[in-house]
Write a structure and sequence with these properties.
Helices cover 46% and strands 0% of the residues. With 93 residues, the chain is mainly alpha-helical.
Length: 93
């Protein structure tokens, strides 16, 4: 190994992640769960088991209306609970 030459080192320059040009919407603030949200899910599940007609959407709307819970607030909370949406079969809407 006499008189051997060293191989030139390769320098690799890393680029910083580029920001996308479209501004992203700020994440929605977490919705404070109402203690009755669990009751809504339980009532909807029982009604789904009992009734053969009606979709999950229709039954859920009916339960929310009877319990006087704002649908928009419940759906915002439900959206945060991704696994629940999948379990209810409402994920692909």
């Amino acid at each position: 190994m006499s008189g051997g030459r060293q191989r030139a080192k390769t320098v690799v320059r890393l680029e910083e992640a580029r920001q996308s040009t479209a501004p992203k919407a700020p994440p929605a603030p977490p919705v404070e769960p109402d203690p009755l949200y669990g009751v809504v899910l339980l009532k909807a599940a029982l009604e789904l088991k009992r009734r053969q007609d009606g979709t999950v959407e229709e039954i859920l709307r009916g339960v929310l209306a009877r319990m006087r819970i704002p649908e928009a607030e419940f759906r915002a909370w439900l959206e945060q609970q991704g696994g629940l949406l999948q379990a209810l079969g409402m994920r692909g809407r």
